[in-house]
Amino acid sequence: MSQDNNKSSESAHEQSVKYVPPKVWVQDKDNGGKFASINRPTAGARHQKALPVGDAPLQLYSLNTPNGVKVNILLEELAELGVKGAEYDAYKIDISEGDQFGSGFVAINPNSKIPALVDHSIFESGEPIAIFESGAILLYLAEKFGKFVPSSLGKARADCLSWVMWQMGSAPFLGGGFGHFYAYAPEPLEYPINRYTMETKRQLDVLDSHLKDNQYMCGNEEADYNIADMIIWAWYGQLVLGKLYDAAEFLQVSDYKHVQRWAQAIAERPAVKRAIELPLKPIG
C-alpha cells in the first residue's frame, strides 16, 4: 500500500475515533445504510399519490415485515373464525420505494410507517376511521369484534395489555437497534452491536422465563391465545425461528427453549401461515 493510501486510511480511522457531535446537527451528508436514500429528518408527503380503496369494510396498507405481519395475523385469525365485517383488502406499501411518503398514505398515517388501516364500516359520523401504529390497530380490531382480547377489567385483560405494551416498547431495540446495526448499517460497529445484542438477548430471556410456565403469553388454554401472542410473535417468534437478520446463530436462539416451543406452535397455526405470505395488491 502506498504512503498516501496509508495516510488516508489513518486519517479516516482518526476521524471516526475522534468524532465529536456538533452543537447543532445538520444533514449535510448521506448517512449510509440500506434505507439511506429515503431517510430525512422531516415528516410529511413528498409526492401526490392517492390510495386505492377496495370493496371490503377494512382497507389495509402495509408490507409483510414484522410490524406488518402483526395485523395480518389478527385479520387472518378473524377470517379463520368467519367473523363478519372483518373482511379486508390488503395493499402493498413498498417502503424501499418511498410509498409511505405518498399524500394518500400520509393522510392516514402522519408518521409514514406501516401498517395503517382504514375502517369503512358505517359509523355515526359517516366518516371512515384511520388507525396507525400496529398496537393500536390490533387493539382496535380485537375490541371491535370482541375477539383475542379479554374484555372485562381484571387480571386477564391487564396481562394482555401489559405484554402488548411490552412489545411496543421493546421491539425498537430489536429492529431499529440490533437489526439496524447488525444487518443494515454501512459498516459493522462493535459498540452498538454489542449494546443492542445484549438488550435483545435480555428480552429473549424475559420471554423465555415467562413462557416456562405459560403455553401462551397470557395463559395455558387455547382461549388464552390473544393479540399479545400475535404482536410478540411477529418479532421475537420469527427471530428465534431464524427468519430475521440471519442472526439465529449469532444470538444463539436455540438457548431459549420455551420461546422456541411457543414460536413453533404459533407458526403452525393456519392463519399465521397465511399471514406471513399474505398477497398484497399494488397501489398502482
Précis, in short:
The chain has 284 residues and is an alpha+beta fold.
Explain what the structure shows.
By secondary structure, the chain is an alpha+beta fold. The chain has a domain at 155-269: Glutathione S-transferase Yfyf (Class Pi), Chain A, domain 2 (Up-down Bundle). Helix content is 48%, strand content 6%. The protein has helices at 3-17, 66-80, 103-108, 134-145, 155-184, 190-211, 227-240, 248-251, 257-267, 270-276, and strands spanning 58-62, 88-92, 116-119, 129-132. Strands 2-1-3-4 form a 4-stranded mixed beta sheet, covered by helices on one side. Helix 2 packs parallel to helix 4. The longest helix is centred in the middle third of the chain and has 30 residues, at 155-184. The radius of gyration is 21 Å and the shape is globular. The N and C termini lie far apart (51 Å). 31% of the residues are buried. Mean pLDDT is 93; it is low at 7-12. Residues 59-149 form the GST N-terminal domain. Belongs to the GST superfamily. Pfam families: GST_C, GST_N. Residues 1-21 are annotated as: Disordered. InterPro entries: Glutathione-S-Trfase_C-like, Glutathione-S-Trfase_C_sf, Glutathione_S-Trfase, Glutathione_S-Trfase_N, GST_C, Thioredoxin-like_sf.
